[in-house]
């Protein structure tokens, strides 16, 4: 194995996240790159976008950005870099929509591939018995939704926000309130086309090159660049009954959530939120939920207390409304929420799925979208969620949170253990997402340093007391931490890396491996 891991000590690249491109040895590299014959083109200047992401904290400038117009542009570029061996220190990162948090789609002094250049390539929908859509990996999920809805179809599993690329979410998992039923997005893919770290173009699926298929799903971009994907579809509903109810008792809240995810016959979507010391409880920035009971809803104020909000949805078509109302009423009867806190809304399926975008537009208008986002996402085993809640919501974050906190359970049986994704071992585990925003120039509890320190306290607590917890969208900077994260999968990761990307060219921004020059 020729690849080396990122050293444990502070690496100068990562200690100071803003680094402009340097010139010197890269002159040779840029000369080499310019000899490539491409359908698209390389840009060597004005590459600021490729050095930014949603996290707004890391800015590592590439040497060049490739705007591919064909898969062979990607394979030729990677093959060229591969064939130079260790004579070149060039690395390559695919950049989807750049909605990473810590520079994962950046490549310092390397080549960033702008996967969105592929957008708009024809999507092919097969509406047969097992419907699917073939898409380019640079396509945004929102565009896939629009296109498939034209044929009354839609993907089954989503993320809360749809302005992300297929390649970007499949490299992680793609989780939302449908995951309890359908598994994450990586459980809903039939086939992929991948360019490996040697520049080979390989088709893969459960039956063909299955190891590569599993490697790239949840693979953090380490084993290949996904160029096309075949995504499974289902019949799309027209409408969604969207419901929120509140709890003050965490045990009742999680008991109801776990009860609801135990059956496919109940709701189509199950999520939840934690509200700490907040007003406007029912309307947070992440969604456009407008309850039919606005007056009653506006009365709720957590007033120093912690509240838990169960968010559920039932899909329906207009001619089924009476039946659905009765069904929802009977499903709600068995739940233990605070009786006066039932809020409902009816929206189109499209409006429901694209709900976070409405809030994005509002925040953009106020200049509050492109600010630092020190997010932390964790997967927590069911048996540890109560200890976690007691310490984190009751102590570390007792007084305030700096953005929505999402919490919901999923069933591990819907996740494929052969993929590269790491999850807790238990049958049911929770996603807990701290989606903090750091308002620029704020200090104190709104400031970036304070939020980062809080995140670290949460992580330290988990490392010491809750060893089964795993990071989702993981971020580490040392070999020891990555090894611990992957646990028993680490050997498989090493084998796959040496097979598919032996020079460690791909996705350097994840900081798992370092090209060994
Ligand atoms: P990028 O940030 O561009 O890339 C992410 C990583 O994948 C990088 O390492 C990159 O090199 C690699 N990569 C990108 N494209 C490819 C490719 N084609 N082949 C191989 N590797 C590739 N996630 C959830 O699961 N559920 C949610 O509900 C959710 N909500 C979100 C809401 C918001 C507002 C944001 C900003 C993020 C959210 N995420 C959620 C996280 C999101 O799924 C990941 O950050 C995802 O990677 C973003 O996709 P992207 O296209 O921006 O990827």
Q: Roughly how much helix do the residues carry, as a percent range?
A: 25-40%
Radius of gyration: 23 Å
What is the class of the largest domain in the CATH system?
Answer: Alpha Beta
User: What distance lies between the first and last C-alpha atoms, to the nearest angstrom?
Assistant: 13 Å
CATH topology label of the largest domain: Vanillyl-alcohol Oxidase, Chain A, domain 3
Strand content: 15-25%
What hetero molecules are bound to the protein chains?
A: flavin-adenine dinucleotide
Strands of the widest sheet, in order across it, are 17-14-16-15-19-20-18-21
* Unreliable segments of 5+ consecutive residues: 1-16
Shape estimate = globular
Oligomer status: single chain
Helix-strand category: alpha+beta
Second-tier CATH architecture of the largest domain: 3-Layer(aba) Sandwich
The description of the largest β-sheet is: 8 strands, antiparallel
Number of domains: 3
Number of strands: 22
The CATH fourth-level homologous superfamily of the largest domain: FAD-linked oxidases, C-terminal domain
The number of distinct helices, counting runs of at least 4 residues, comes to: 16
Mean pLDDT: 90
Family: Belongs to the oxygen-dependent FAD-linked oxidoreductase family.
GO molecular function: cytokinin dehydrogenase activity; FAD binding
Keywords: FAD, Flavoprotein, Glycoprotein, Oxidoreductase, Signal
Cofactor: FAD
């Amino acid at each position: 194995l020729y690849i080396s891991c990122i050293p444990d000590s502070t690496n100068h690249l990562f200690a100071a996240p803003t680094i402009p491109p340097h010139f010197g040895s890269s002159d040779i590299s840029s000369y080499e790159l310019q000899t490539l014959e491409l359908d698209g083109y390389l840009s060597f200047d004005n590459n600021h976008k490729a050095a930014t992401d949603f996290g707004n904290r890391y800015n590592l400038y590439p040497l060049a950005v490739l705007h591919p117009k064909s898969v062979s542009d990607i394979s030729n570029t990677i093959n060229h870099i591969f064939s130079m061996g260790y004579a070149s220190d060039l690395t390559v990162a695919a950049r989807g929509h750049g909605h990473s948090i810590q520079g994962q789609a950046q490549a310092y002094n390397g080549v960033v591939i702008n996967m969105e250049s592929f957008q708009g390539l024809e999507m092919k929908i097969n509406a047969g018995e097992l419907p699917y859509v073939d898409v380019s990996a640079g396509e945004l999920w929102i565009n896939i939704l629009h296109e498939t809805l034209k044929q009354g179809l839609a993907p089954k599993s989503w993320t809360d926000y749809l302005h992300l690329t297929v390649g970007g979410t499949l490299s992680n998992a793609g989780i939302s309130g449908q995951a309890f039923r359908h598994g994450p997005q990586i459980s809903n893919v039939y086939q992929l086309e991948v360019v490996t770290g040697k520049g080979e173009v390989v088709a893969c699926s459960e039956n063909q090159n299955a190891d590569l298929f599993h490697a790239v799903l949840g693979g953090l971009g380490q084993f290949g660049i996904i160029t096309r994907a075949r995504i499974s579809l289902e019949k799309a509903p027209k409408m969604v009954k969207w419901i929120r109810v509140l709890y003050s008792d965490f045990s009742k809240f999680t008991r109801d959530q776990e009860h609801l995810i135990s059956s496919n016959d109940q709701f189509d979507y199950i999520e939840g939120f934690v509200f700490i010391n907040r007003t406007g409880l029912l309307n947070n920035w992440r969604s456009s939920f407008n309850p039919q009971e606005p007056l009653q809803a506006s009365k709720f104020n957590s007033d120093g207390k912690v509240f838990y909000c169960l968010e559920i949805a039932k899909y329906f078509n207009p001619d089924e409304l009476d039946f659905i109302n009765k069904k929802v009423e009977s499903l709600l009867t068995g739940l233990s929420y605070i009786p006066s806190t039932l809020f409902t809304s009816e929206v189109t399926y499209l409006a429901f799925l694209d709900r976070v975008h409405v809030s994005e537009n509002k925040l953009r208008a106020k200049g509050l979208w492109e600010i630092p986002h020190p997010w932390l996402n964790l997967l927590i085993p069911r048996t540890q969620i109560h200890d976690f809640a007691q310490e984190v919501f009751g102590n570390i974050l007792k007084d305030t949170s700096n953005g929505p906190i999402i919490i919901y359970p999923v069933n591990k049986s819907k996740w494929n253990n052969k993929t590269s994704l790491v999850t807790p071992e238990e049958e049911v585990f929770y996603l807990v997402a701290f989606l903090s925003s750091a308002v620029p120039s704020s200090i104190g509890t709104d400031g970036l340093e304070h939020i980062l320190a809080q995140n670290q306290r949460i992580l330290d607590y988990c490392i010491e007391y809750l060893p089964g917890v795993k990071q989702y969208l993981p971020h580490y900077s040392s070999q020891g931490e990555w090894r611990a994260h992957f646990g028993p999968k680490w050997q498989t990761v090493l084998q796959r890396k040496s097979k598919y990307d032996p020079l460690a060219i791909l996705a350097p921004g994840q900081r798992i491996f370092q090209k060994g020059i």
